[in-house]
Amino acid sequence: MIAVIGDIHGCFHTLVKLVDQLDRYFPNVPIYSVGDLIDRGNFSFEVVELFLERKIFFTPGNHDLMFVDHFKNPNSLFARSWFSNGAITTLKSYQDRIDKIDEHINYILSMPLFFNNDDCFISHAGISYRFDKIIDDSVIKDDNKLLNIFNQSLESDYGILWCREKLLNIGKLQVLGHTRMPEPKYDSQSNSIYIDCGAVSGNKLVAVIIENGKVFEYLWTRTELIDIA
Predict the structure, then answer these.
(1) DSSP output for 134-178
(2) Is residue 110 part of a domain?
(3) Tally of domains within the chain
(4) Could you read off the pLDDT of 140-155 as tens digits, one per residue?
(5) Number of other residues whose CB lies within 10 A of the CB of residue 118
(6) Please, are residues 67 and 39 in contact by the beta-carbon 8 Å criterion?
(7) What is the pLDDT of residues 47-106, one digit of tens each?
(8) Phi/psi at 53 (nearest 5 deg)?
């Protein structure tokens, strides 16, 4: 059994409430996230610090890697896209903690693009149907081959960080964020669960509990106004 949290986007106080629920109802269950820890909300720094403190696993989202590239690869597409995607609030959250930026960048870079667990496949935006001729039953079991495939399409609009189109059924549950939904949405055709429920737009932050390859339960909390006002 594991818990997976949707896109957080700097909503620190909302995140704390959800993690408290997980501790209460599912103590000792490993916690993962589909990424987009930062941008748009007011407390990106605090979110990353909490992940470090709690050792929460996550797959970096496009926003997390735009932040990284702004400092490490400023001519990249990710870096050039950042200021139209919520950079200002993130920079404000770091304005008195400049000394922590390198630590947080290295932490983000230490996390994998996906978690290919026995029960489910966790990524930020999911595996597009366009990979149906490339990813078969043997490839889905080989993380090195998958990583090579995904790295080649990292900046494409169907890549694992940006995909908003039909997903590939890979023979196990996919858990993803990125595509905002008012409620968690299960797609039976691709066997995928979408858990970005718009915390930063004032809706809610969701965690899905996965057991034996199935959705066991959802926990959620409404967005705290301080995170977005």
Answers:
(1) T--TTGGG-HHHHHHHHHHTTTSTTSTTT--SPBP--SSEEEE-S
(2) yes
(3) 1
(4) 999 999 999 999 999 9
(5) 7
(6) yes
(7) 999 999 999 999 999 999 999 999 999 999 889 999 989 899 999 999 999 999 999 999
(8) -65, -45
Question: Is 45 within the bounds of a domain?
Answer: yes
Give me the residues paired with residue 29 across strands: none
The count of other CB atoms within 10 Å of the CB of residue 125 is 28
Residue whose pair of structure tokens reads 């960048």 in the numeric block: 105
| CA distances to 74, 87, 121 from 81, in Å | 10, 9, 27
* Distance in angstroms (rounded) separating the CA atoms of residues 138 and 73: 34
Range of the domain at 120: 13-227
CATH (domain of 139): 3.60.21.10
In a domain, 6, yes or no: no
